[in-house]
Amino acid sequence: MKNKILIIISVIITQIIIAQNPLLIPNTLEGTNINLTLQNGTHQFYSGINTTTMGANGNILGPTLILNQGDFVNFYVDNQLGEATTIHWHGMHVSPENDGGPHTVIDPNTIWNPSFTILDKAATYWYHPHLHEQTTAHVAKGIAGLIIVRDSEEAVLNLPRTYGVDDFPLVVQTKDFDTSNQIITNSNSDDIIMVNATIDAALTVPEQVVRFRLLNGSTMRTFNFGLSGSQIFYQIASDGGLLSNNIPLTRLQLSPGERAEILVDFAGMSGQTVFLMSYASEFSNGIYGATNPGMGAGMTLNGYNPNSLNGTNFNIMQFNVGVPTTSPITTIESPLVTVTPIPESNANVTRSIVMSPVTAGANQLNGNFYLNNTLFDMNVINETVQLDDTEIWTLTNNSAIAHPFHIHDVQFYILDRDGNLPPLNEQGRKDVVYVKPQETVRFITKFETFSSVVPYMYHCHMLMHEDGGMMGQFVVESPLSVENNEFSNQLIIYPNPTKDNINILIEGNLSSDTIKIVDQLGRLIISEKISVSENNIQIETLPKGLYFLKATINNKRITKKIIIE
Ligand code: C2O
Ligand code: CU
Ligand code: CU
Questions:
Q1: Distance (Å, rounded) from C-alpha 67 to C-alpha 148?
Q2: All structural domains of the chain with their residue ranges
Q3: CATH code for the part of the protein at 488-564
Q4: Which among 35, 443, 520, 534 is least surrounded, fewest beta carbons within 10 Å?
Q5: Fold equal for 344-477 and 488-564
Q6: CA 41/CA 524 separation, integer angstroms
Q7: 213 CB near ligand 1 (under 6 Å)
Q8: pLDDT in tens, 89-117
Q9: Comparing 270 with 534, which gets the higher pLDDT?
Q10: Ligand 1 and 408: CB distance under 6 A
C-alpha cells in the first residue's frame, strides 16, 4: 500500500516537472495612437493559484508596441493602479518630458499623454515603470512590455518578421514567491524562472529560421543564454539597432535591461525539442547568477544562497519544432546594415563614473552603491551636457559585483573594455553595458536633438541598486532656444548649425500651420505652410548668419535660433 502511494506520488511529481505551459505571446498595439491602461490584476503562474500582479491592458506584462520610424505617435497612459507610477520608453531617443523618468509622475486616475516622433532605428526596446524607489516593485509585480521599432533599412532584409509566427518576443525574468505564491519584490532569492510570465514555457516553432527578441527583464539576475547541445544561433541586433553582420554564437550574456535579437535555424529538426538555457555555471564570481555574487572572499548577499539557479546550468524554456510555414525564411541574412560607430576623435568632452559600495568590505553586497561617491537625489543635477556634444564616458567598477550601466536619451558605442575592443556582438548600438568588478569600460555617444528642462537618468539597471540610489541625472543644455525654453522640445531643428537645409520636427499640435524664419533685424525671410510633423526646408540661398525660426505649437510661441554657416 505504501509503495503504491509512493509510486502514485512519484508519477504526479514527474508530471509536474515535465508539465509545460504554452508560452504567452503578448498582444500587439500598432499605429499612431497607443492606449495603455496600467492596472492591478491576478495571474495564475501556477494553475489554480492566483497571484496579485500589475499589468498594462491586462493582468501582467503589457502589449508589444509596434512602431514605425518617422511616425508621430500619441500615447495615452491611464494609471488605474491606485498609486503613482511612471512609464519609461527604455532605449528610445525622446525628449526628457516624454521619457517617463522619475520626475514625470502619473498620479492615480490620471492619463499621461506623451507624443513624439519615432526617431529610433529598427530594434527591440521596452517600456517599464520608473518611479523613484518604486521601480523594483512595479516591474517585479509585472509591468513591462516590448517595443518593436520598424524602419526601411530593416524592411528590405530577408529576416523573419511575422509576430507570433516566426518572430517571437521572449521577456525572460526570475521572481521570488512567498508561501502563498505572492511576489516578493525586494528579493535575492529569485528562483522562479519565467518567459512572458509563463513558468515552464513551451513554444512550437516552425521548422525554419526563427527570430527571437530577447529581453532580460529581471530585477537583478544576469543570464548566460545558450541553446541545449550548444547549438549555434546568430545575433542580429543589440539594444538599439541591427548589427553589421550576424554574429554566430553559442553563448550570449544579457544583464538586466539588455536586449538582443537572435536567429535560430530549426531546419531539419521537425519533432525535436531544443531548450533555451542559461549556462550560469560558466559565470565567474562577481556576477549575480554565479555561485558567488561577489568577487572576493566571504562576500555574501542576503537570501542569495541556496538557489538552484546560481552557478548552475538550467533550462529557461523549450522549443518544440513543428512544421514550416508556407513561405519560410531559410537563410541567415548577412550582411545586415551599415553600422557607423562614432570615431573617438569626435569626442570633445570626457566624463567618468565610478561605481563603489557605500560600505566597503565583505558585507558590501547588501548595501547600496554609489555613482561618483553620491547616492541619487531627486533635487541634484549630477551632470550637465551641451547639446550636440560628443562625449566619452569612462565607467569604472570599484565594487565586488558587476553592474549593468544604463543611460537615457542616447544609444552609445562601446570603445573598449579594459583597453580591449569589445566582442563583435557589442560593437553595435547599446544603451546598457555590463561592467564587471574592477573593470573599466569606455563608451562614446552624441547628445543630439533634445535639450532638457526635465533631467534624464543614468543608473544601474539592477533595480534594487537603482532604487537604492545607484542613479544620477543629467540635463542637456542648448543655447539655441530663445523663447519658451520650457517647450523647446516641441520644435526641433537639425542640423543646426547648417549649410543648405534644415529639418523641422514638430512634437505637438501646430496652432498655426505657418512657420516663419526671420533674420536678426526681425525681417520675414521665409514663411512656409507645414502640415506634417517632419519637414525639410531648403535654405541654401540665404546668406550666412543668425536667423530665428518661429512656430506656435499647443498655443505657445516657440522661437529658436538657426545658424547658417
Ligand atoms: Cu530601463 Cu532608466 O531604465
Ligand atoms: Cu532607460
Ligand atoms: Cu548595480
A1: 6
A2: 344-477, 488-564
A3: 2.60.40.1930
A4: 520
A5: yes
A6: 57
A7: no
A8: 999 999 999 999 999 999 999 999 999 99
A9: 270
A10: yes
